[in-house]
């Protein structure tokens, strides 16, 4: 969306065969300056944190922009993702594309098998629909614990958070403490949805094909659906819940012990 838009979805001409690029890719005023700022922030991060720096990618549109920037500018940044065991095939299909087209290896962190088996045996495969507490517990096992291993020994991590994504993220800064002694870098904080897709189109960056099915925010398969015209950007995530600020916990400050054990707040 343009910088004047809210976080509501905007699907001009949406219909059968519409692609996310056709719907959203628009060059808006200030794009080149925002792009230059993001590259500058990435270069500064490499100079400041060195080997302690990592990109944590969800393989969503924003994170594909960042991964491409890392590759395009030859930046020494490790890239890693979480495979929760519940991702769409279209999401996982990006991993070999990143290697073949961008020339980068993506480290994959998975949940501990025993923890997942115990959770499913105790609560069932569809526990996430039963209560908010069980949904967050599922996220903790499948996301928070693997995240703790991804970030072990790191001093800073790069995310694709943007202010436009939701009211809960409206004041996302470029840099912030993550609650575990590391710095979280949100290098696309001021980008619009139009910016993201204009970049992906301009540089022919691979993206999750589910975005073409009106899924701007993509998580685990059981917890993601398409959005309709006028719905909030993240309305397709955990759509059955009443909470206004729907998050899995990855971007909430947790103690190191909570992360390691998969406990949740």
The poorly predicted ranges are 1-16, 254-265
User: H/E series, N to C?
Assistant: HHEHEHHEHHEEEHH
What number of structural domains do the residues give? 1
Strand count, sense and closure of the main sheet?
Answer: 6 strands, mixed
Strand content: 5-15%
Structural class, judged by helices and strands?
alpha/beta
Give, in spatial order, the strands making up the sheet with the most strands: 3-2-1-4-6-5
Can you identify the CATH class? Alpha Beta
* DSSP helix fraction: 25-40%
Number of strands: 6
Rg calculated over all Cα atoms? 18 Å
- Named CATH topology: Rossmann fold
Q: How far is the N terminus from the C terminus? A: 32 Å
> Shape from CA axes?
globular
CATH architectural type: 3-Layer(aba) Sandwich
**Number of helices, where a helix is a run of at least 4 consecutive DSSP H or I residues:** 9
Roughly what is the average pLDDT, rounded to an integer? 88
Instruction: Give the CATH H-level superfamily.
Output: HUPs
């Amino acid at each position: 969306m343009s910088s004047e838009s809210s976080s509501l979805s905007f699907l001009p001409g949406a219909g059968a065969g519409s692609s996310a690029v056709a719907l959203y890719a628009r060059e808006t005023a200030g794009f080149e300056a925002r792009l230059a700022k993001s590259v500058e922030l990435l270069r500064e991060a490499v100079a400041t944190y060195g080997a302690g720096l990592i990109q944590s990618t969800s393989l969503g549109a924003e994170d594909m922009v960042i991964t491409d920037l890392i590759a395009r500018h030859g930046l020494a940044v490790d890239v890693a993702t979480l495979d929760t065991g519940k991702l769409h095939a279209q999401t996982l299909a990006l991993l070999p594309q990143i290697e073949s087209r961008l020339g980068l290896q993506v480290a994959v962190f998975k949940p501990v098998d025993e923890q997942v088996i115990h959770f499913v045996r105790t609560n069932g495969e569809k526990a996430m629909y039963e209560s908010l507490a069980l949904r967050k517990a599922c996220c903790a096992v499948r996301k928070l614990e693997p995240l703790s291993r991804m970030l072990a020994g790191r001093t800073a991590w790069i995310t694709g958070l943007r202010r436009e994504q939701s009211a809960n993220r409206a004041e996302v800064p470029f840099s912030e403490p993550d609650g575990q002694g590391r710095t979280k870098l949100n290098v696309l904080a001021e980008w619009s949805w139009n910016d993201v897709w204009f970049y992906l189109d301009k540089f022919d960056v691979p993206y999750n094909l589910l975005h073409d099915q009106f899924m701007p925010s993509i998580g685990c398969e059981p917890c993601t659906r398409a959005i309709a015209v006028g719905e909030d950007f993240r309305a397709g995530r955990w759509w059955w819940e009443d909470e206004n600020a729907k998050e899995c916990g990855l971007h909430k400050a947790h103690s190191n012990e909570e992360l390691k054990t998969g406990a949740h707040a």
